[in-house]
Design brief:
Blueprint: E1 3-7, E2 22-31, H1 34-45, E3 58-60, H2 88-93, E4 98-101, H3 107-116, E5 119-122, H4 128-132, E6 135-142, E7 151-165, H5 172-182
């Protein structure tokens, strides 16, 4: 049975989320991909405020396509997370609580997740049209000039995810193959 979560996620729930858990996430999620991350890190390096308050928030590494007629959003699929690895620790240090993407993360990011008590979710790849049905509203909130890669505030309902790295650093991308190889 999936764990139901609302974003921003209640901090007391994070320790109960274990690598491999299925999750249905509802609430507010922000999108940000490579270009938006680069701008946020530049803002941090130059002492400027971030365009959104990321404390306690969830960032989805995605850029939804324009909405077709009669829909709130176009297709929205997770971006390969390792592309954000150089940016992620700095954002976690500033209070980012949860991340959604696809694929494994580097050791520095996993350590930053542990240090900050955050969680990394993976979204199913290859079903971007299906995931768009979980979006109830979309609003551009920063970097509008980036188009699809602008930062958007989404309201989602029952977005299907899996805990990929929990707050202790347990990593499904390592635990899964180890369990398979050991015959567990």
């Amino acid at each position: 049975m999936p764990v139901r979560c609302t974003s921003p996620i209640d901090p007391s729930l994070i320790p109960r989320l274990k690598a491999g858990d299925s999750v249905l996430l509802s609430g507010v999620v922000y999108t940000a991909r490579d270009a938006a991350h680069a701008r946020m890190i530049n803002a941090i390096k130059t002492g400027k405020a971030l365009p959104i308050d990321i404390r306690g928030q969830t960032i989805f590494y995605a850029g939804p396509t324009p909405a077709p007629p009669g829909r709130v959003s176009g297709a929205i699929g997770p971006t390969t997370s390792v592309r954000m690895d150089s940016f992620t620790p700095a954002l976690l240090l500033r209070g980012l609580q949860a991340i959604i993407g696809k694929g494994d993360r580097g050791a520095e990011v996993i350590q930053a997740i542990r240090d900050s008590g955050a969680v990394y979710f993976t979204a199913p790849a290859g079903c971007a049209a299906y995931l768009s049905r979980c979006i109830q509203s979309v609003e551009v909130v920063a970097y509008e000039d980036l188009g699809t890669e602008s930062i958007k505030r989404l309201t989602v309902c029952d977005l299907p995810l899996m805990v990929a790295v929990d707050y202790k650093g347990n990593d499904i991308y390592k635990l899964g193959p180890e369990a398979w190889l050991s015959g567990s």
